[in-house]
């Protein structure tokens, strides 16, 4: 007889026990018919905290922001049908930026599946293109193992959201609970260690470089490679750029940092990307917003080394000479070992000449703006936010001009401090992501840089912030326009501002106050610093700062769509 | 340009739709796709026929490998391989055509597996081009109905796709 004490649990209890086993502290969700038993099981315990959002999109973004700010797997829980469809934007956002997340969704009872039942939607089908993987659990005996797999898949290899769809009847069925300690899947074995021969090739290529350049993306942040990257870049004295997703991967205040590359990247970063002769791409994917037109990018000959955990990211848009599939910290450590062991480094004279060229580019001061303006310049607000927070805040953003200014003007010295929707470009991301970031870091200063258009897309979460006392500092750069749309219309559509003016705006001060928060309206440049200081001093309050900014300001530099990196429009 | 790709994948509900979804989402061509369980019931084997540049084919194999349920992917066109397709074709077979159809089926090593007083159903296997040739060789107006499986492929000799 087996004397091991076994536990008989319902499916709902199993879900909650699995979350406990995974060490999940916080679940973002919204109840509904199909998940009532799971909510009942949550009610009966106090290990896993549930944060009630006001819309399922907010749940997904908050779980996402929680993960980005903490390196843990974010978890959200929503009901079937509209619960799922509302969450899809958030799931797709996480998928595009490779964020480890587990999404648990309720489903109609198994006998009702396929019969167009109330609140039924084909969740597995609808989410298939925007998840790393998804499961429909039809048998309670598969539940624990599937959730274990979901966490494993979400957090290993190239991370991403994994969805587990659980029919309501499965949450009531009972079986013996057993949480598997390990997961083995014959079809899933991500490569970790980079190929030694390829690493040697890369190192030799670097030794011959006259104009080397390091370009890193979100992969460095996700794999926690910032320390190894920083050490390696400094050891060899290389110029380094971080993409929008990679900011903080290398210290933003370091002289070897050239700023962000791409459509709104700095002049020096883009010129160095275009004119280098050996490019190290690390955890980045040469996307259209980073390298512009690939044909133009290819006009300048250069050898490319690409380090990434996902083979399908390599040679997708740009042909690569030395692909290295592997876990970035492992590969960087191996390269560091070789260089410390006396491997030839790039010739000092050539490197110095290259740096002189870069400094000439940098001297263009491509991020300059009118500092004497009598109207608040949005860039000025971000600069002041940086000063007032001492560069130490976690900054989330929505999508548009404010996002670019935050990326350009807030210098991130550490990873996981800059949280934005880079891939999908989801307006409405900033506020719920800030909630997640703050819950993951209860002591941190969390600022949400947003605009009057973006903030309205998940505005309802102000209520969640009140309930959970999340003292987020909302920096609303209010120019009464969908600024980036307006900018494109000015540049490319003959100043025809079709539907980009934000009319009938609420009074954001009163709005914030109606949710029980503090509201401020700031209209003069000389009041910006004081307002930010006051907001930060209110440690327990959410402060909504409505900065009335210059309506005509544009984001520069700009590489117009379809153009090459060296074809920037400068201010 | 034309590639025949073999995929070994978990025999699970939804695995096929992940492959089909991948091809449509990323805009890859798909000429034919056949799938059935292998001798190991837990695995399915799929044969995909697609066209594309070397870069596209490289992405297709990488993206297929990235699917969680895919165990192994091999581009059979990289080396020596055999491919076969099965076709069932129902042809009108009356009067003097009846003898002619029988003769054509014999020439193409087809088998007549269904007979009525008005038609024959012919079973034919071969490469896609052989099946095309048969359809080209008979009187087009005699074709009542055709059904083809799409190509199945296997590597020659030591080229084995197995776990």
Structural description of this entry:
The complex is a heterodimer of chains A (571) and B (163). Helix content of chain A is 36%, strand content 16%. Chain A is built from 21 helices and 19 strands. Chain A is globular. Chain A is of the alpha/beta class and 571 residues long. In chain A, the strands form 4 sheets. In chain A, strands 3-2-4-5-7-6 form a 6-stranded parallel beta sheet, sandwiched between helices. Chain B has 4 helices and 9 strands. In chain B, strands 5, 6, 7, 8 and 9 form a 5-stranded antiparallel beta sheet that branches. Chain B has a 4-stranded antiparallel beta sheet with strand order 2-3-1-4, covered by helices on one side. Chain B is of the alpha+beta class. Chain B has helices at 15-25, 54-66, 96-107, 128-137; strands at 2-10, 32-37, 43-51, 70-75, 81-92, 111-115, 119-126, 143-148, 152-155. The model of chain B has no long low-confidence stretch (mean pLDDT 96).
Described by its quaternary structure, the protein is heterodimer
Mean pLDDT of chain B: 96
Tell me about the biggest sheet of chain B? 5 strands, antiparallel
Distance between the termini of chain B: 28 Å
Low-confidence stretches of chain B: none
Would you summarize the structure shown here?
The complex is a heterodimer of chains A (571) and B (163). With 571 residues, chain A is of the alpha/beta class.
